[in-house]
């Protein structure tokens, strides 16, 4: 049976990051769709948000690098479940989109994957 990977997306503005083996902070290196008025009130459930995030320079490379890191964790002698948490400011755009892309990539490698979006349902944080 293949290893189980739990991916948890979250927003730093809604509380502490979840406990994880690997935590990725997407806030400072990747443009926030929140700054685009037409995307602000959408979420990663909306195609325009996913397209904007996935077309951001560096995201595809980070998905690949994270998949490699997950495989390394899973190869350990007492690996068990591998938990990945990825966060952005509000948890509605970058983090859940990245979580979905990572899940797709890991499933292609034969991992069993569970994805939880802790904060995607929360209201837009006014900044």
Structure description:
- This protein has 127 residues and is an alpha/beta fold.
- It contains four helices and four strands, in the order E-E-H-H-H-E-H-E.
- It has a four-stranded parallel β-sheet.
- Helix 2 packs across helix 4 (94-108) and helix 3 (59-75) crosses helix 4 (94-108).
- The mean pLDDT is 94.
What are the SSEs and their pairings?
Layout: E1 4-11, E2 22-25, H1 37-40, H2 47-54, H3 59-75, E3 82-88, H4 94-108, E4 112-117
Parallel strand pairs: 1-3, 1-4, 2-3
Helix pairs in contact: 2-4, 3-4
Summarize model confidence as the mean pLDDT: 94
The portion of residues assigned to helices is 25-40%
**What is the strand arrangement across the widest sheet?**
2-3-1-4
What is the overall number of helices? 4
What is the makeup of the main sheet?
4 strands, parallel
Bulk shape: globular
* Backbone CA Rg: 14 Å
Oligomer category? single chain
Could you give the distance between the termini? 45 Å
